[in-house]
Amino acid sequence: MPNKIKCTVTECQYNSAVECGAPMIQVERNNSGSASNSDQTKCETFKPKHM
Ligand code: SF4
User: Which segments carry the region annotation Disordered (predicted)?
Assistant: First the structure.
């Protein structure tokens, strides 16, 4: 069964109906050497729509 990623960032070009359609996403630490909560992570695959 394929993994599904629910994502509410609907302004991303990979987003369709609050679901990520990218074949793979890359998630990185967000200005942190060692993340301790989800605020310290970010989706690097995000691309704005219409660009
Ligand atoms: S690429 Fe990242 S930001 Fe864009 S829809 Fe997928 S999970 Fe959300």
Answer: 29-51
